[in-house]
Each structure stands twice: as structure tokens, then as C-alpha cells.
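Appendix C. Worked example: 45 kDa calcium-binding protein
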Amino acid sequence: MGRSHPNASAQLCRMTKTHAHSPQSARSVWTLCKTMSNRRRSQPGRLCASTLAVFVILALNVQARPANMSALKDKHPNSKEDNEILPPDHLNGVKMEMDGHLNKGFHQEVFLGKEMEEFEEDSEPRRNRKKLIEIFTKVDINKDRSVSAKEMQRWIMEKTEEHFQEAVKENKLSFLAVDPDGDGHVTWDEYRVKFLASKGFNEKEVAEKIKNNEELKVDQETQEVLESLKDRWFQADNPPADQLLNEEEFLSFLHPEHSRGMLRYMVKEIVRDLDQDGDGKLSLAEFISLPMGTVENQQAQDIDDDWVRERKKEFEEVIDSNHDMIVTMEELEEYMDPMNEYNALNEAKQMIAVADENQNHNLELEEILKYSEYFTGSKLMDYARNVHEEF
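Step 2, the predicted output written as C-alpha cells:
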């Protein structure tokens, strides 16, 4: 079972201020967030004094939220090895980050799959339009020049599977990096050596000290990250527990969406960090707030109506499936499951509704090109020009 480390909040606060623009923080912040639940209940967060913030807090019971680490996507990681062996905060094709934030790019991830990189903002618009037309023809299975919810659902499941396979591929390299003796299993000590080496420690010295059961002198922040990773490590160790992870178990350690048990563990950690009254469920007020005291000197715009409105809408319309204004762990687990076909159908309907200007519950090519920024993150100019000829 996972343990609680109540002093992690202060460490996360320092880490967030120091590394707010560091790709590394995006991958390690969750391991600290998971240890905060006890301390956050006893220490008030620092709230902005602006009128807007006070209004939102009083009216909607919103608390100061941490900076969104999921915005840092590690497109250009400083250390490839470091990013390979640390569990990422952001999981492609999963609706929520491991730090409790909503995945802002989810609909683009499940629409583009592994082709996401081809739609960077600075890419050539005409090439992007052509690529988007190609995608449309693939989604349109029956070739009636429109995309139905069922066709979009099938496409979303296919793209999600692409993300899964990409994670499996990357995991093979990650596993090799932490399995130096190549025996097909990784001990906690082997992983700990590689982790500390990625933090600048001398790998040989660390390995020697661990071998001789000597004390490792690490700072408090690193120690708490290690303890959180160790909890997660043993959760990924499938029965019968042998304190070793094979390649499949290591995949679950890095990517909990690949294992039902680890997905459930991830959900429990998110609920624990948001659950203020300790009932094991989330109310709307709890869901639209995040752990307090994680960031100092927050700007007023950090607590804004758009953010609150987005989480409120997701809570009421998607996550709370029985509409009783309470989200249980079971409901959140279903919401987080990337291979849930019912969720994929709901997502398909939502995506269609965004661009369905003629209200026929289908997407035409003109509509998807006009709303290209929503689907791809890239805005196309003259979206309708020669569309029929190109199609």
C-alpha cells in the first residue's frame, strides 16, 4: 500500500518556484504531489488578494491551485535518460494528468495519434490542410463525405492504441537503461542507482554505497521523491510480489494507464490529494480546487473563471456519470480509462458538437477544416479554398 509523507508540500512548493519552466519538473512533480494530502489539510494556502480571486474563492470555494506542470510536454528534454526512467506527469490519450489537472490537449491527442508532431504551429498551413484532409478520408469509413459519432469513436480508439504502442516501444529503451545486467528484471536498488545518477550523483559511488548498505546523503526533496517512487514501484510489482519488476511491470510503473491495478492506484492518489473531507469521494467544490500551499506568490489570473468553468463542466457533464454531484473512485477510474469505448463515444460526440455548424450531428470536411485549431492545434488560413477539388 502507498504511504503518506506529510512534509512533501513544502518541497513541492520550492520545486515549483525553482523549476517551473523545467521539463524535469513536469515529470517528477506528481511523485511529490501524492505525498501532500495530510499537510494540506492543516496549512492554509497563500491566496491572491485581488478582488477576482476573493470573489471566486467565496462564491465557488476555490483554493489556490498549483501551476499546471502538464503544460510542459518535454518536447525538447534536457536529459533523455532522465525523462526515460521517470514516470511522466503527462500521459498521451489520458483525460487527466497525474497531478490532477485536466489534459488540455486530450482531444488533439486522440484525433491525431502519433501524427501530432506533424501539426506544429510553425508548420506550413497548406501541408497541414492536406494532411487534415487525408485524416478526414480515413475517418470517413463509409465514404459518404461526413464523419459520424461511431466513425469518430472508432478513430479515437485506434489513435489511443497508437499512443499505447508508442509507450510500449519507449518502455523497451527505458527498461534497458535501468537493467544494466540484462537479466530481464530490475531491482529497486538498480533503479535507485540510475535515478540518482540522473540527478547528478556519481553512479559508481552510489552503487557501491547501496551494495555495502551505507547511508546515502541526499537532500530532503530527493529523498521524498525516492520514497514516493518506491511506493509506486511496489504497487507495480504484480503478485506474487518479488520486489523485482520485469519489462511489463516496469511499463505499468511508468505508464499506469496500461494496467487496471495501476490505473486504480493513480485514481486513488488523485482523489486523496483533492479530497478535503476524507470521505474518499469528490464533491464539485473539491474538484474545482487543488491542493493548497503548493505555489507562493500566485498571480490573480491563476485563479480565473475559465479554469473553474472548465472543471465544473467536466465534473457535471462527463465524470459524474449518475449526476448525483459526487464523483466516486469508480466513476473517476472509468473516466480515466483510455480504452473505455463509452468514453470514446462521448468524446466523439463532444468533438463533433464543437464544429457541427449545420447541426446534423456529423462532421463535414469544411467544418473540420474551419475548426482545425481545435482538432490539431494549428490554425489554417483560407480553410475552404479549393477544398472540394483537393478532396
